[in-house]
Every structure is written in structure tokens, then in C-alpha cells.
């Protein structure tokens, strides 16, 4: 039976669970259960702390897991990202009291509070900067005011926690993070693991794309197809009126209104957009 780790709480948990549900897997019914067996799909789900998930997967105890890219980066295990899942997006950044630091080099010789010491130590080493990381479990933003550190390195989503603590980011982010599917590095995936990966990938496609249908006169077809090239090749069908054709194609959901305006201006009519419920691309 395939064994899969899912975040049991925190920012990634709800989105990971709803994505797996959308992919047809049965999730735990009790909010505190730590294990749930999906008999129909023959998958056993383990609800674990997101930080621990890379350890279980890297050790080969569990086959797949969902965690944060930043947590994977901080772990010292041999697990690797196999699919970016598009939720729980954040950046991982250095910050210090407003006006005190402007460049990452300013961290030289300073104390940096973080819950991600391996990620930070690796970044500093790559830059040739010697500094001391102070490992804290959370509420890292308040550590500078309390005097245990001079700067912090932490997850930034909206930036409101930083601002409330009088801190400002500086330098480029160490990482852009999001929820990711992970597997043991170099492991050969079982057919069931391949299926789970494919299902999640197609949940993303269904969320990110829509189906667009429109009619257009043959003389304007190429112009319209240039704007709606589809994923592989759009379907072009004859209509009863030989001067017209019908086009069916996939369009990124974010662009749908712009694309409709453009093909309309190029002569397309009867433009209809349909959401994708489920798919396998
Ligand atoms: N606003 C956010 N705050 C914290 N983590 C976030 C946020 N948005 C996304 N994440 C991601 O969630 C993961 C951290 O999850 P984790 O459950 O350890 O901490 P948490 O969401 O802060 O929960 P808690 O600290 O309450 O246990 C990281 O991959 C991080 O990038
Ligand atoms: O940029 P923002 O939108 O403000 O979000 C980022 C903050 O949220 C998280 O903290 P969390 O609430 O998980 O508390 P913690 O520090 O105890 O983990 C994270 O560690 C940052 O502090
Ligand atoms: Mg937290």
C-alpha cells in the first residue's frame, strides 16, 4: 500500500487536504486522526508535522509527502521536490530593525534568529558571510526587540508580522516557497505513486486552465489561433456555413478575459468559456 505524509496542521494542512480530496482520495474524518486508510485507492495517509515530513520521506519510511519547499530546504534528508503545488506561497527573507541593515553583507558577525537554521547557514556559507544563527521555534520577529538577535530570517507572506515588529526586509529572498510533493531522492516511484503525482498535477491543470470555444471565419482563423494556441493543438471543426469554423482550446484562467477581448476583436463570435472539473492531460 502506498504511504503518503500530509501536513496535520499549520498553513499547508487545509490546502493539501483539499487538493488530495479533489484528486479523489479519502481524507481523515476526525480532525485529529494521525492515520487514515483510503481502501479504494489503496493509499495510507499519515498526518504529520510539516517539518517532519521530509525526514520520513527521505528515510524511505513513507513513499511521498506534501510539505513546504523551505522546510524541505532546511531538512538534511535526501528527499526531493517532484511537483510544485501552487498553495501556501511565501518568501523566506532576512529582516532587521528598520534602517539598520540594507545589504546581506551587513549580517557579517551578527546574530540571526530563525526557525530554519540549516537553510540560513547554507545561504550564509554560499555568500562567504560568517554570522551566528540562533534557533527559535517561532514568533521569531519579536526576538530582536527582546535582544537575543540582531536580525531574523523567516517566512514572509503578507509582511504584516514584520511591520508590526518594526522590521524591514533586505536583500533578495533566500527562497520562494510553496507546498510541494516530495519523494526520496533517486527512488523509483511505484505505479500508485505515479498515479498520485499525475492526479495532483491534473488538479492544478483543472484549476489553472479553462476551455474556450468560439466560432470564427476561416480568413481570421490563424490570427485567432495565434492568441489561443492551446496546450498541444486546438481543435478546429467545420461548421454548416463553410465560411466559418469552430475552435475549442485551453486558455490560462488568469488570462481569460483578455484573450476573449482579443479574439473578439479579431472576428471571433459565440465565445464560450467552461471551467474544467477534472482532467488528465
Ligand atoms: N503565513 C505563513 N506563515 C507561516 N508559514 C507559512 C505561511 N504561508 C505559508 N507558509 C508555509 O507553511 C510552512 C510552515 O508550516 P508550519 O505548519 O511548520 O508552520 P505554520 O504554518 O507557521 O504553523 P504553526 O507555526 O502555527 O505550527 C512553510 O513551508 C511555510 O513556507
Ligand atoms: O508575512 P505574514 O503574513 O505576517 O506571515 C508570516 C508570519 O506567519 C508565520 O508565523 P506564525 O503565525 O505561523 O507563528 P510562528 O512564528 O509561531 O510560527 C511566519 O513565521 C511569520 O511570522
Ligand atoms: Mg509558524
Automatic annotation (TrEMBL):
Q: A GO molecular-function term, please?
A: magnesium ion binding
Catalytic reaction equation(s) = 1-(5-phospho-beta-D-ribosyl)-ATP + diphosphate = 5-phospho-alpha-D-ribose 1-diphosphate + ATP
One Pfam family per UniProt: HisG_C
Domain Histidine biosynthesis HisG C-terminal, by residue range, is: 206-276
| Primary location | cytoplasm
What this protein needs as a cofactor is: Mg(2+)
- InterPro entries (UniProt xref): ATP-PRT_HisG_long (IPR020621), ATP_PRibTrfase_cat (IPR013820), ATP_PRibTrfase_CS (IPR018198), ATP_PRibTrfase_HisG (IPR001348), HisG_C (IPR013115), N-reg_PII-like_a/b (IPR011322), N-reg_PII/ATP_PRibTrfase_C (IPR015867)
Q: Which CDD domains match?
A: PBP2_HisGL1
Q: Describe regulators of its activity.
A: Feedback inhibited by histidine.
- Record keywords, A-Z: Amino-acid biosynthesis, ATP-binding, Cytoplasm, Glycosyltransferase, Histidine biosynthesis, Magnesium, Metal-binding, Nucleotide-binding, Transferase
Q: In which pathway does it act?
A: Amino-acid biosynthesis; L-histidine biosynthesis; L-histidine from 5-phospho-alpha-D-ribose 1-diphosphate: step 1/9
Naming one, the record's GO cellular component terms include: cytoplasm
Coiled-coil ranges from the UniProt annotation: none
Question: Is Glycosyltransferase set as a keyword in this record?
Answer: yes
Give compartment(s). Answer: Cytoplasm
Q: Which SUPFAM superfamilies match?
A: GlnB-like, Periplasmic binding protein-like II
Domain spans labelled ATP phosphoribosyltransferase catalytic: 49-188
The record describes the protein's role as:
Catalyzes the condensation of ATP and 5-phosphoribose 1-diphosphate to form N'-(5'-phosphoribosyl)-ATP (PR-ATP). Has a crucial role in the pathway because the rate of histidine biosynthesis seems to be controlled primarily by regulation of HisG enzymatic activity.
Q: Hey, which family's this protein in?
A: Belongs to the ATP phosphoribosyltransferase family. Long subfamily.
Name under which the protein is recorded: ATP phosphoribosyltransferase
Q: Whose protein is this, by species?
A: Sediminivirga luteola
Amino acid at each position: 500500500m502506498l504511504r503518503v505524509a500530509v501536513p496535520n496542521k499549520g498553513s499547508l494542512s487545509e490546502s493539501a487536504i483539499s487538493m488530495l480530496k479533489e484528486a479523489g482520495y479519502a481524507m481523515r474524518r476526525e480532525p485529529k486522526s494521525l492515520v487514515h486508510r483510503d481502501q479504494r485507492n489503496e493509499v495510507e495517509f499519515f498526518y504529520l508535522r510539516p517539518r517532519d515530513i521530509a525526514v520520513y520521506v527521505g528515510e524511505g519510511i513513507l513513499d511521498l509527502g506534501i510539505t513546504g519547499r523551505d522546510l524541505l530546504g532546511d531538512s538534511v534528508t535526501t528527499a526531493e521536490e517532484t511537483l510544485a503545488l501552487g498553495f501556501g506561497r511565501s518568501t523566506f527573507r532576512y529582516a532587521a530593525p528598520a534602517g539598520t541593515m540594507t545589504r546581506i553583507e551587513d549580517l557579517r558577525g551578527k546574530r540571526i534568529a530563525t526557525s530554519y537554521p540549516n537553510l540560513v547557514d547554507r545561504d550564509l556559507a554560499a555568500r562567504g558571510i560568517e554570522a551566528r544563527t540562533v534557533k527559535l521555534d517561532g514568533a521569531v520577529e519579536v526576538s530582536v526587540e527582546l535582544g537575543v538577535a540582531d536580525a531574523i530570517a523567516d517566512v514572509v507572506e503578507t509582511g504584516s508580522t514584520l511591520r508590526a515588529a518594526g522590521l524591514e526586509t533586505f536583500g533578495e529572498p533566500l527562497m520562494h516557497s510553496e507546498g510541494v510533493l516530495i519523494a526520496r531522492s533517486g527512488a523509483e516511484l511505484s505505479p500508485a505513486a505515479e498515479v498520485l503525482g499525475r492526479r495532483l498535477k491534473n488538479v492544478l491543470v483543472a484549476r489553472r486552465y479553462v476551455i474556450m470555444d468560439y466560432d470564427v471565419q476561416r480568413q481570421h482563423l490563424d490570427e485567432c489561433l495565434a492568441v489561443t494556441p492551446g496546450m498541444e493543438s486546438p481543435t478546429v471543426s467545420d461548421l454548416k456555413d463553410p465560411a466559418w469554423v469552430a475552435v475549442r482550446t485551453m486558455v490560462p484562467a488568469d488570462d481569460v478575459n483578455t484573450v476573449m477581448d482579443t479574439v473578439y476583436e479579431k472576428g471571433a463570435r459565440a465565445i464560450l468559456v467552461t471551467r474544467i472539473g477534472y482532467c488528465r492531460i
